[in-house]
Amino acid sequence: MKMNKKARAIKKNAGFWYRFTRNKSAIIGLVAVSIVVFAAVFANLIAPSEDVLKQDYSAIMQPPSKEHLFGTDQLGRDLFARVIYGSRYSLVIGVTTSLVALLIGGTLGSVAGYFGGAIDNIIMRILDVVISIPAVLLALAIVSALGASLVNLMLALTVALVPGVARLVRSVILTVAEEDYVEAAKAYGASNFRILLRYIVPNAMGTIIISTTINISYMILSAAGLSFIGMGIQPPDPEWGALLGDAKNYMRQAPHMLIFPGLFILLAALGFSLIGDGLRDALDPRLKD
Amino acid sequence: MIRFIGKRLLLSIPVLLGVVFIVFAIMSLTPADPGSLILGIRATPEAVAKLNHELGFDKPFFERFFLYIKDIVLHFDFGVSYMNRKPCLQEALSYFPVTLQIAALSMFFSTVIGVSLGVFAAVKQYSLFDTFFSVMAMLFAAIPGFWVGMMLILIFSLTLGLLPPSGVASWDCYILPTATLVFGSSAELFRLTRAQMLEEIRQDYTRTALAKGAPNRVMIWRHALKNALLPVITSIGNSFGGLLGGAIIVETIFGMPGIGTYMLKHILAKDVPVVMTCTLILAAMFYFIILLVDIAYALIDPRIRAQYARKRGV
């Protein structure tokens, strides 16, 4: 019985990898994310860290050249170094906020979905209220109260993301909880905790992983948007949105300042959402067109 | 049906009160007190304390909250700005039309473009048309809107000189801001419509319709689209929240005097009453759009209609 289950699991996983790696857009996503992760991890090998802040007034707003691959900004800083180091901010923000929101939202959602009744009602009604404030607006309100900084930005984005995650997890749990094997586990007297962790969560995992991957992309975009309007990472820190906020003021003189940070945001956001789509198609072939 | 609408309207009271509470709680985390913000750094501590007392800022949190709610409900008074001592609501509302216009125009165009292209792509699955727009939708869903906005300014205003880069002086000032938001949100609607249509086209009832001799065109527009649209309608409502948030950012790029520009200016000055009022107006707007969409949904979906019809009968 146990062997059989294991063998089935392996077969299912093999199919999953096969389907995932055969999916062209998923591979493109994987490559895009790898580039960004590589840039973030090896930033100090790719560009000297002092270049991020080093100002050079003799080379202000230079277009891309051999010395400055992406050109320089209004203070003569090397944009290549700034964009490369910027990937650290976007990745950390995107991944951390999505995972923390998953932890909080996932707990709330599974408790609400599994226990139902009054607990469900209380949790979901509170979340209904939070969700009726547009996410960007909620994040903006939190940052404006606490002050703009990396930690506050991450806190704000997490709070804005939690209700959506909780709703999704709850709906997945509700579907899984109706399966026969959950009924069977209840019948032989497994504890609630065991049923939730052992049977429901693993079976709900697929959908949850997909949405978390897509959330990373969404969080990277939101963080960039808030930093762009000055409500996130503050200059001189080289977050991509903040770089674009600088570029806005010099659009006429230095259009190159606009192009590269934007392309990297696109690369990261597109990468994660393509991986998310690829995972969905691979985990559940029925959903594929 | 009236029961349904009445129930939803009644439900909006606790939700909106909850929204006010959350926003009030968030804004009360602001580490500064109104007295020192209004009087500036040179004011004496006594004067600051006196003003804080007059404004009721020294009262406990819940008492302040209930006073705030009372002023809103009884007098429609959202407080006065710390910056210029004007009533927040009137001033915020004067900036509101620009934001609403951008959001509404974007909602309209992204629905028209996203849904129609989505239907065509699904009908001609795997065609060049489908592949092209699917790839474009993928891209535009991942491009930050504000970047699109700046690229549009760069191309159409600074390089080609076709459209104004900022302001609200004439109608063509709205083209670029609207386009900026439409790219992202029509991409999402396109993907959802396409996926829904593909699912419906494969259903048995569409095959039955074809077998009964209905032309393909009728099957697609009358049978499949009607069912495919239900989730799309919900998504249109939800996307309005994103469009309002997007409008805030877009306004700052195009220098438009909307609620976003107004709000940002006051955020930097820690002008809590103004930020709170703007947040509440936008949240309430979003809530009522969702409400309208839900009602529209109930009107369209015979299942929900029937549910309420039955209840009335009992």
Oligomer: heterodimer
* Residue runs with pLDDT of under 50 for 5 or more positions of chain A: none
Number of structural units classed as domains of chain B: 2
Q: How many beta-strand segments of chain A?
A: 0
- The name of the CATH topology of the largest domain in chain B is MetI-like fold
| Rg of chain A, Å, rounded | 22 Å
Compressed to H and E, one letter per element, the order of chain B equals: HHHHHHHHHHHHH
Strand content of chain B: under 5%
State the major sheet of chain A: none
Q: Enumerate how many helices of chain B there are, as a single number.
A: 13
Q: What is the radius of gyration of chain B?
A: 24 Å
CATH T-level fold name of chain A: MetI-like fold
Order of helices and strands of chain A: HHHHHHHHHHH
Structure description:
With 289 residues, chain A is an all-alpha fold. Chain A has one domain (86-288): Orthogonal Bundle (MetI-like fold). Chain A contains 11 helices and no strands. The longest helix of chain A is centred in the middle third of the chain and has 37 residues, at 79-115. Chain A is elongated and about 75 Å long. Chain A starts with a helix and ends in a 6-residue tail after the last helix. The mean pLDDT of chain A is 87. Chain B is mainly alpha-helical and 314 residues long. Chain B folds into 2 domains: 2-75, no CATH class; 95-313, Orthogonal Bundle (MetI-like fold), CATH 1.10.3720.10. Helix content of chain B is 79%, strand content 0%. Chain B is built from 13 helices and no strands. Chain B has helices spanning 2-27, 34-39, 45-54, 61-75, 88-123, 128-142, 145-159, 175-201, 204-211, 216-254, 259-268, 272-300, 302-313. In chain B, helix 12 (272-300) crosses helix 13 (302-313). The longest helix of chain B has 39 residues, at 216-254. The mean pLDDT of chain B is 87. The interface between A and B is large, with 44 and 53 residues.
